[in-house]
Specification:
Length: 96
Amino acid sequence: MLTLGTIPERLDRVSFTHDDEVSHIEVDQDAARKTGAGALLERICPAHVYRVKPDGTVGIEYAACLECGTCLAIAPPGVVRWRYPRGGFGVAFREG
Ligand code: SF4
């Protein structure tokens, strides 16, 4: 029987190869401000990649991205530009 385990156990199955040069996520700050999407992105991202800064802009900690695609599906059109990380970078999941 498959057991999912606790959150720490599940996160132990995730590893990242960080791309320190190129972010695979960009936010159109004007579109985010007009639509209020920053708060939405903060709430829906399971990896807490997005943070609304005191000045209202949306910060991106792309290295923590789990590549789930939720932000791309939920954000208003044109706010998030998301693509997979360059080859060899990003998240890796392992079973067991
Ligand atoms: Fe967060 Fe998933 Fe979007 Fe990555 S793809 S930034 S984990 S919502």
